[in-house]
Amino acid sequence: MRVGLVCAHADSTRRVDGSAVGTHQHIAKVAAELAARGHDVRVYERRDDPDLPETVTVDGYRVERAPVGPATPVGTRELVPYVAEYGRWLLDRWSGDWAPEVVHGHYWIGGLAAAHAVRATDIPVVQTFHSLGVEQLRHLGGRYDGPGERIPLERALTRAVDIAVAQSNDEVDELTRMGLQRASVAMVPPGVDTARFHPDGEAAPRDRRPRILSVGGLTPGHGAEDLIRAMRLVGDAELVIAGGPPAEQLADHAEARHLRAVAERNGVAEQVKLVGAVPHEQMATWYRSADVVACTPHYSTAGRVSLEAMACGVPVVGYAMGGIADAVVDEVTGRLVPPGDVRSLGVTLRRLLADNASRFAYGHAAVDRVRCSYTWERTAGALERLYERVIGRRHPIEATAPVTVPETDTVPETVTTTPVEAA
Description:
Rossmann fold, 16 helices, alpha/beta, globular, 16 strands, eight-stranded mixed beta sheet
């Protein structure tokens, strides 16, 4: 198959630590696996640096960078006016001697560009949102800071794609509430690089106290404040929070200062350590250094951190929501607690840290679960079968519900594709 994977953002992670994390990691791993299976794969992203080559071949697939928008890094809000231009650029690329048989949009901006590009063709579109604005708004409330047009455009996008790919059962439910038929939503969980994340290898230095590790961006929705408050109930243990800006910038980071103030107020300042950004290729050593990995975000679609920790043989204590609830089997690979229940979180952490036998058993079961159910090979195989179905079932082009995307000059343009049902 000829497969086009579309992401509107540039791969900003290459400037941070040289590795792909989050959405770009997902795309890179899927592309490499599909290429290894003999498919002709091309990945499309925005070019935000004039010194970068327009095309490059990586791990058997081709990356093409669109000269759309400013040649500098910009956020999602600033990309919205360039969606239609990006779609026209894609269509022009696919009007020559290479055109995809199926297009897979990633994140809502990438999906809008993909749908715009194929609106006058019979190329089917698959869409992975990675996160949903309406669900983030529900969980984060006033702390949600996404663009105002995101939620209505995501709803419109669901009507313009052939199949939406959910990464957790909670996301399946959310997409159906947004109006998609259940048969038009496919559940395909993310994978884990088990060659990098495994129990054997070096561990980051630590002291004699039990270690709880939390990983993620330093944002209000990450749940680090819940963990710090829970430390009052844990006892003599160390909480290490990895993520956010580089360590040397933490002193000037507003959320880092806030978390330190929370630790002071709760009398656990000596137990809380913020280490800042950690390169993804070094994360396995941090997971292995922990007795427990705590996953307490207020919103989580894929549960990537819980899966990586489990692959390293570390039990997870997490909020029973999103991808975390799917990945962690309660009392088998870790423990699940009600989201936002700080008391249950603290008590569960304390009991698990005191129970060496359970941690040992959970860790072994966690490794087995990841290797059986959460490899990138398995993820790519599921997508491969999904692509084959939508290509085989694509109906002739006909008019359907339009998706309106903003132009650079704010004049709306229409995107139309024909949805089909999944098997």
